UniProtKB/TrEMBL annotation, chains A, B, C:
Subunit structure: Homotrimer.
Family the UniProt entry places it in: Belongs to the ammonium transporter (TC 2.A.49) family. Rh subfamily.
Name of the molecule in the record: RHCG protein
Domain Ammonium transporter AmtB-like: 63-427
GO molecular function, one term: ammonium channel activity
Gene3D superfamilies: Ammonium transporter AmtB like domains (1.10.3430.10)
Swiss-Prot/TrEMBL keywords: Ammonia transport, Cell membrane, Glycoprotein, Membrane, Transmembrane, Transmembrane helix, Transport
Any single Pfam family the record assigns to this protein: Ammonium_transp
BP GO terms, sorted: ammonium homeostasis
Name of encoding gene: Rhcg
Entry's localization field: Cell membrane
Membrane topology type: Multi-pass membrane protein
Length: 467, 467, 467
């Protein structure tokens, strides 16, 4: 209840010049690079009238905007409100959770538009962007939000911006290897977003291991209302996950199917999470940590396969398993990771993103390998896996092998990248707080006096009398 | 402020084996039944390319996904955030409100996909699902969320799962009778969702009457921030209700019209609610209970008629009346129901869903009976009421009569079903809490120590000094 | 912490008869006027089947509903949750913030449908409405929500309803002058919504200047959780702003482009806001007031130009500048306005809406003046600025001049209108609270006893022991 005694801090956490410098420098860089490279794509350019005629489109409704914009907005909510509020569960780190998530995501989407643009939307020296690029930028930043979950409360905003810069870069490289070189399908990002993001974050937090973190243990819990704020994040992630997994799938049946599979998987996941949360606690009481997190594992675990013919009952199975794995992870793996492997994972991203992400990659590989022309139809089969051009001779089992390779590449990129970036973040110049001041907004934020002051007043009756 | 003394509890509320058993058993049943029955509908199946050709569709945008997915997501938010947070108004039952709503809805949508599928999407031994089925499953679960409002804080999660199983079943039967046998229109569910759900819940809570409930009276109120959490639920229900009432209407003008009528009705409802809330309180102060609930009655009351030519001013009238009825209900009827009829209605669903639902059914019957070819146009008239096939000779007044019959059937189903299900829930095996522990999360949830502990510290200064 | 002593109030704040009277009177007026004037537009009318044939439309998807409804819902969320929760930052005015915003917006949209309908959708003595009218009504009310921000906590609900009546009227006149007489482009409302709304509100609050407001200074701050509630409002405004600026743009590329420009501007704005928030505080700590508000300035500042070929890097520049201007405004201008000009601006709308609105108007004028057929394409150029009919000879530079004139007209309307309406609101009949009771929900709302009572109990140990 008492304020941390900052006068006693060994570290200089003042952001006064460092944070503005980094923010402004990077924003200027963004402006210059956008000026040189970024232009409107054909469907967002005022020349669209002529374009429409050339493409023989009879209606404005054929603009990709109308296929994807509603999904984009749902994804946008997931990144900013979903991840932001999910992390407000800590009693005294709500500002940092939602505020730093806001900061890193707002920077990350700009840098992602460039990085992903160079890899995927580059033509004649320019990057041409449309609504699909906005979705992909949000996706890329999603992987940074995931990694943020592991180091939540232990890093300065500058460290987060530095991490975002590197992680977005590595994400884009990894995504390019998977989607373009390996020709892997991963529309909902089980591998590119969740597996990569989570193992990257876990590696970073391992490198940044703080042996004295138990000094701030009293602040690493929740209070009643902070748990309710976190449920806002949970529910928005849960509800909009069908949009997440279907947002960049092919028009038509693929988007439709992705939404259905994800809806089913998530519904099943809630039941197994509740079951195991109650079963693994001595008195059978439910734990909000599980409800806030493990209920979402079903969305992660169908990220790769949702647009495939996974089928509704297949989705129920995947969702059920991932809810169990994730809840068991919170009860047994997280303490193990911390005590034995020195991995301090604030939000338990290992349980919500890493393991379910791996499940998602594996389920995707199996579903791809099991695909037949009978199930997909002749045209549907080619369209679903994009078996055209140089890939027209690929068989489902070979595709399954490449999907599996995608998991391995994502893991390697995450470990190597996380180790390097963790090393950079360990430099003593970024202004992170001492162990006893972790999980405390007061270090980087102006915090209003409230309950604390009440308690203070109690011991000073004359003050309480005249507020 | 003191914790309930659980050691003194007469009842065994431990969920440790019972809740996992029920959750896992039912999820396994869902997987088996989905495996046997549920398949992707044509628009979500990879054979869609061929389907498109057969149906002469020139564009993927004709896929029903693009007509209904944005509305589906809005409905989804209403069920999980809307109902979930609306019920967080209780000071110590926020976890139960949002968490149990999450649990029952996640189970209910799976069971509803099956039940409604057998009645409406069954062909050649399989249920074929698409986005419209997802919306209908959410709708069905909406009626369970409504019934949950009556028994909020007084039941165990197992009781809720048992109730969901039965209520979804009965809902689907009632819906089949109304929509298929009586050929009644009810796109926004005034009868099928609200009237049925509310009277079902009120009957259940009557059967479960707790004579000693005043023992937990101190917990049956709100605190300042719990009222703000509840407003999140209110506003999402209010804002997205136009999507709710238009989500499964016919493509084109019907969806468009439903949204406009609902928008108008809800706007009017806010003003009359505020007026009567202030008028009925001695000092003229507004009551958050009314603002959180009665402002929504306008959405309920145009549920049947919104897709008809109710007209914007007709909607204003219906919305105005329902706001008044609902607010008056909170002030006068709820205490009467409790003291005289022994109906303990935690959220006042009688005022928000039951009476406005009846109004909605009646307004729908009148609007249907008053329909003319002049107002609808010749084709529009047939399309609006689906007067084709065996129904091509139906006149508006006969349709109005059938609409009225739909209200009666819904009421009978609700009373009979609620009595039976209430009886089942009364069995002493489900682990519900004793009267003095109602409205208290601590019974079924791990609750963090927070303000309480502060207050506790006050009386133990030595503890407060070293937190 | 102590309750205000109401017994000492000089003013009669009871709403018991006044508020119901105003609400019911105005709702009756709405019903009569809607009955006389408002009808469904062609796309929402049951005659649509015939209409479709006449317009040679082959699919229901061509109904404007499918182009605009998802954006409408996003705008709807911005008005009710966005503005409502943004203003909950005050520690004891959360009910008033979200509740009065709800009240005035629900009334305002009805009156706006009429006012804007007479100006823009009037034919043969009737107003024909569709989804675009709903969006415009929400937009119009947005300007009232902005003005509410200046007087938040200092006015009675009746004053707000009176202000809404007049402001909606003046908004519609101003909008008609700009869009129809000056033929100005302003799809995102930098001028019509933000400049007009903000300067109107600032003028009103100037007229209502309260010299003794420091008597309630202790309640004019936030507490920890009220700041988190406010962040819900901030994030929904931020995330959905691309929908706001694109909602009524032309179908196709214009909507697409508006969303991209707004997305970019807002992302940049977050970084410069964070930079200056940290830089301008002695210890370099971030201030939630800036994060909650100045991060949104980027959306305001591209309101006029987002649908033009502003380009992504142009958007980054505008967003960066507006974040800086807005944050500097909070630190330096707001105290200056209060101490020197007697403008008491509770939410700092001068920084979030007034200055960025002016920037938006100017950027729009420049972007229009700089337009060339080369950049827009021949057809795109005509379509973007609607240079048809009597306007076919307008050049870009003339258009730029008219855009600039639009700013001036909006300012004059705001100052004149605000002065008159402020004068009306100064009449001593509306039941506003005394200075010492400002920013206090207890004046107009039933407020549950909570933390206060705890603190009270502390000094009465015998009470605390038996709650």
């Amino acid at each position: 209840v008492e304020r941390p005694r900052h006068q006693g801090m060994a570290k200089n956490t003042s952001m006064r010049w460092r944070l503005p410098l980094v923010c402004l420098l990077w924003e200027v860089a963004m402006i210059v690079l956008f000026g040189v490279f970024v232009r409107f794509g054909a469907e967002a350019d005022a020349h669209w009238e002529e374009e429409k005629r050339e493409m023989n489109l009879t209606s404005d409704i054929e603009n990709d905007f109308y296929f994807r914009y509603p999904s984009f907005q749902d994804v946008h909510v997931m990144i900013f409100v979903g991840f932001g509020f999910l992390m407000t569960f800590l009693k005294r780190y709500g500002f940092g959770a939602v505020g730093f998530n806001f900061l890193l995501a707002a920077f990350g989407i700009q840098w992602a538009l460039l990085m992903q643009g160079w890899f995927h939307s580059f033509k004649d020296g320019k990057i041409f962007i449309g609504v699909e690029n906005l979705i992909n930028a949000d996706f890329c930043v999603g992987s940074v939000c995931i990694a943020f979950g592991a180091i939540l409360g232990k890093t300065s905003p500058i460290q987060l911006l530095v991490m975002t810069l590197f992680q977005v870069t590595l994400f884009s490289v990894n995504e390019y290897i998977l989607l373009n070189l390996l020709h892997v399908k991963d529309a909902g990002g089980s591998m590119t977003i969740h597996t990569f993001g989570a193992y990257f974050g876990l590696t970073v937090t391992r490198v940044l291991y703080r042996p004295n973190l138990e000094q701030s243990k009293d602040k690493q819990g929740s209070v009643y209302h902070s748990d309710l704020f976190a449920m806002i994040g949970t529910l928005y992630l849960w509800m909009y996950w069908p949009s997440f997994n279907s947002a960049i799938s092919d028009h038509g049946d693929a988007q439709h199917r992705s939404a259905i599979n994800t809806y089913c998987s998530l519904a099943a996941c809630v039941l197994t999470t509740m079951a195991f949360s109650s079963m693994l606690q001595k008195k059978g009481k439910l734990d909000m940590v599980h409800i806030q997190n493990a209920t979402l594992a079903g969305g992660v675990a169908v990220g790769t396969s949702a647009e495939m013919m996974l089928t509704p009952y297949g989705s129920l199975i995947v969702g059920s398993i991932s809810g169990i794995v994730s809840t068991v992870g919170y009860v047994y793996f997280t303490p193990f990771l911390e005590s034995r492997l020195h991995i301090q994972d604030t939000c338990g991203i290992h349980n919500l993103h890493a393991m379910p992400g791996l499940i998602g990659g594996i389920v995707g590989a199996i579903t791809a390998a099991a695909a037949t022309e009978d199930v997909y139809g002749k045209e549907g089969f080619i369209k679903a896996f994009d078996f055209t051009g140089v890939y027209q001779t690929r068989t489902p089992s070979i595709q399954g092998g490449f999907q599996a390779a995608g998991i391995v590449v994502s893991l390697l990129m995450a470990f190597a990248g996380g180790a390097i970036v963790g090393g950079i973040l360990k430099l003593p110049i970024w202004g992170d707080a001492a162990a006893e001041n972790c999980f405390e907004d007061d270090v980087y934020w102006e915090v209003p006096e409230d309950e604390e002051s009440d308690v203070y007043h109690m011991h000073n009756p004359e003050k309480a009398a005249s507020p």
